[in-house]
Amino acid sequence: MPLDEVGPGRTFGSYEVLEELGRGGMGRVYRARHVTLEREVALKLLSEQVAEDAFYVQRFLKEARAAARLNHPGIVQIYDFGQVGSHWFLAMELVEGRSLAHFLKTWGRFSEQNAIVLARQTLNALAVAHAAGIVHRDIKPDNVILGKKGIVKLVDLGLAKKIDDPGASSTGFAAGTPYYISPEQIEGRADVDGRADLYSLGATLFQLVTGQVPFPGPSSAVIMSRHLNERAPDPRIHTPELSEAFCVAVLHLLTRERDRRPRNAEEAEREFALLQAGEVTPPAVSVSAAHPPATAQDPAGSAFETAVSSALAIPAAWDAEVYRRVEEKLAARVGPLARLLVRKATREAADFGDLCRRLAEQIPDASARPGFLKDVLAGPASTRPSGPGSGAASTREAGETRGATGATGASGAGGAGGPQVPSSPAPRPASSPSGSGSSSGPGSFPPALLAAAEQRLAAEIGPLARVLVKQESKRQPNWGALVEALSLQVPDEAGRRRLREALAPLGV
Is 459 inside any structural domain? Predict the structure, then answer.
């Protein structure tokens, strides 16, 4: 049965589907009833596209196993997991409530006292998870449900890992959501523990009481770089009426160095319990001394303002004609929102194929996605991008200017056949194995070149450079491709140009 045929009144395995509760990139969630046990559940189904990807199936399975290990009223219980036909499903406790993100959007920011109550409940649930060796790794307002009786429930353990699991994050993948992710997750450390969840909870509480995330930014790279580089601002910049003691507790969770955070969830919960009881003595070191408040102008300072402004511009690495064509095809399926979606996706896409896949996921009608991909991927060579992921020749040997486009000849990336969209830039000739045309494969760059790339990128975006260079060096086939991929992580065009000019000659 196609997923689109699953709906109210239909039977799915042992479950009668009652109503759809929501849908997203991973799939759909229904209210359903087990026909034998007559128990109502939340039935989560993976979409067909996601189910074809072994990574997401494993993530889905990990969520089931992680939650099934835990027994606490603050953690959604798992009842069943399996496959019906080609569809993977997860049957879990049906929670009558809404996410904190929903309440924040609908009602606005929370009071300090309500935030303290929510913090204590969340920390109690996390203490149980951490004691069982499970780190959630994606605490955020969307993943904390507030039930009708005022009980908090943690959901979506899809990124959870067992503390002693050496496989999770060993590849350097920064699992988590950029606005709430801990510095150690950004760094891809293999020894992430429960203190990462405390940091994410701190970011969540900051948003609940201020209506703002602690580190805004125009791209994931900028946001994560700020987590690594900057101290969280005093929440009273946004909400002056907050108590100093409460702000100290929140900023204690948001400390960059995890050894300076509360040692565990129990210790953090005790801090908020004292706050709730009114038994907190003003700390010897005030918030303003420990965390110098950023001024109202700080988030819009010159560097950050430039980054935000440049986020609206078309990156030089992408041909404007490509934008026009892709935007036109997407607009036919999603309307005026296409323009914003294309520009946002281009900031995050690794190559043209990745860009198209990201945009296809934004089309609500799943049946329309294949047609969109066919339209944009089968376009004439002249409309394919001249930057990352393109097949366009982009050599420097003939004295061409970087970014110039040319038709792909028989010896070019496009070959003599029909148009194609490779997943990474085509190799370019070079005089050395480490050059831009090296075909030695991803991950084989000389350490000296990678060190130079890290140093130059760090000058533009900060310590996050080390993580990005490590990740991209494993993906890109040659030096030219690596330089282009790294340049896309720089938020402003001037910075991208500086990076290219400094690094490109090193591979020749």
Answer: yes
| Total residue count of the chain as it appears in this document | 508
pLDDT of residue 209: 97
Judgement on whether residues 380 and 244 belong to the same structural domain of the protein: no
Q: Is 427 part of a structural domain of the chain?
A: no
Number of other CB atoms surrounding residue 351 within 10 Å: 24
Selected catalytic residue, list 53, 138, 156, 191: 138
Range of the domain at 52: 3-93
| 476 Cβ neighbours under 8 A, 6+ residues apart | 424, 425, 442, 482, 485
What is the C-alpha separation between 190 and 175, in angstroms, rounded?
11
Identify any residues that bridge with 90 across adjacent strands, giving them in sequence order. Answer: 44, 81
| Percent with pLDDT over 90 in the chain | 28
**Which of 93, 116, 150 marks a domain boundary?**
93
What confidence tens digit (pLDDT) does each residue in 262-312 have? Answer: 999 999 999 999 888 875 543 333 343 334 333 333 333 333 223 323 332
Opening angle at CA 417, ends 411 and 421, nearest 5:
90
**CA-atom Rg of the chain in angstroms:** 25
Same domain? 53 vs 195 = no
Residues 241 and 154 in one domain: yes
Query: Beta strand pairing status for 40-46 and 27-34?
Result: antiparallel
User: Could you tell me the CA-to-CA distances from 372 to 34, 325, 331, 334, 493 in Å, in that order?
Assistant: 38, 11, 10, 11, 29
Contact 410, 418 (CB under 8 A): no
Q: Where residue 340 falls among pLDDT bands split at 50, 70, 90?
A: low
Residue 395 pLDDT class (50, 70, 90 cuts): very low
Higher pLDDT, 199 or 188: 199
Cα 360 from Cα 65, distance rounded (Å): 30
**Contact assessment for residue 124 and residue 231, using Cβ atoms and an 8 Å cutoff:** no
389/349 Cα distance (integer angstroms)? 9
How far from the centroid of its chain's Cα atoms is residue 42's Cα? Answer: 25
**Angle at CA of residue 95, ends 89 and 99, nearest 5°:** 100
The pLDDT score that the predictor gives to residue 352 is 74
Give the 3-state secondary structure of residue 98: strand
Residue 211 falls within a domain, yes or no? Answer: yes
Q: What is residue 315's DSSP assignment?
A: P
Per the rule left: phi > 0, alpha: psi between -120 and 50, beta: everything else, 149 is alpha
Q: In this structure, are 34 and 115 located in the same domain?
A: no
Neighbouring C-alpha atoms within 13 Å toward the C-beta of 286: 7
Closest by CA to 379, choosing from 424, 326, 417, is 326
Q: Do residue 136 and residue 281 come from a single domain?
A: yes
The verdict on 72 and 151 lying in the same domain is no
Residue 165 a catalytic site member = no
Domain boundary residue among 332, 364, 386?
386
How much is the pLDDT for 210? 97
Amino acid (1-letter code) at residue 8:
P
Structure tokens at 70: 């835990």
Laid out side by side, the sheet with 15-23 consists of: 11-12, 15-23, 27-34, 40-46, 87-93, 78-84
